[in-house]
Structures are given as C-alpha cells and as structure tokens.
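anyone seen this seq b4? input:
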Amino acid sequence: MKLENFCSKIPKKVYSVLKKRGFKELRPSQIKAIEAGLFEDKNLLICTPTASGKTLVAELAALNALYHDQGKVIYVVPLRALAQEKVRDFKRDYPDLKIVLTSGDRDSDDSYLERFDWIVTTSEKLDSLLRHKAAWLNNIKVVVVDEVHLLNDSTRGPTLEVLITLLRKILPKLQLVALSATIGNPEELSSWLGATLVLDDWRPVRLDKGIYLDGKVEFW
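predicted toks r here
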C-alpha cells in the first residue's frame, strides 16, 4: 500500500525520513504494525517471514522514540557480527543520529553510552549493563529484541528471558518490539510479553516446497 495513505498515522518527522529514504510503499507487516499501535507505544511481537520488512518496523519504533519521545533506543541481537552489520546499516540510513555498538566481555556500566541515541548490543552485554545499574538506562524508551525465538535456546534463552523481565519491571513505560521469522507458539509468547501479535505470511519471493528424488523435484 502506498506510503502517502498513512501520512496521518505516521509522525511527521518519521514520515519525512521515510520519504527522504525513497520509500513509496509499505509492506503488509509494516501496515499491520502501525494499525496495532506502533506509534502509540504499544508492545508488539512481529512474526513474519524473512525479508518481509520486520526490521523497518523496529526502525520506525526507534525513530518515533528518538524524534518524538526523546528517549534512547536499545537494539538487541544475538551475535556481535549481526550487531556490527546493524550498526553499519543504521549509520548509513540515519546519519543524523548517534548510533553505537557495545558488546564484548568488558564488565562495566559503559557510562560513555549516555552520549548516544541508539545502542546496538547483545543480550549478554545488556545483562552486564543492567547489573551495573547504568544511570542512562532510565532514559530508554524502546527496546527491540531481534530473533526473539532464541528464548527457546538452551544457552542464550535464560539470559534473554531475565533481561526482558527486568527491563519491563524497571522501565514500566518501555515499548518492547520483538521480531522473529520462526515462532511455534506466537500467541503464548505475545501474552507473556504483554504485546500485540502481528502475524503475516507475505514474502517478497514465493516459497515453493518440494521433494527431490532421483534428479527430479516434485512440488507440493
């Protein structure tokens, strides 16, 4: 659907950024997220296929927090390599914002992060920051949890579960945006997160399933 059709539902500053980046249309998951309260600080669980536009939903929540609510954004990813990729992309797309990566084994409150708007980190690093009770944490408005299905992972899951629980307790006005392409129990997870579930099966490239046998593929 055309972006201009949602002009009244998107904050002016955020809308102008989208226009500047050349967006002319919104994908189904992005439309559903807006209608579910993305710009009304509602918690959202976005469950849609890979490349369906989940990341932009998270970016829109981040931009609303930074331009409208004047709060910080934390973007949580499972791996440092993914964090580096996200920081590179965000800095390219939003050069006016102060975006930084923090990860690694250094156990401290990283007070220098107070100077940044948008912090990309891993769950392990955020756990360290929470335990050190960094003063700037009180300024967080939006937390994005990418690959939230890792809650079911035996190694990363417990840390991520504790993080989400603590963040919701110490920051009652926090907006949580969780993203995943693969969740077996989205209704149950959205209930635990206190989030509105956004489901959609649209994908930019059709996915066909089939069985390969003796040099031939039989599609379902």
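The chain has one domain: 3-219. The radius of gyration is 18 Å. kinda curious what u guys think
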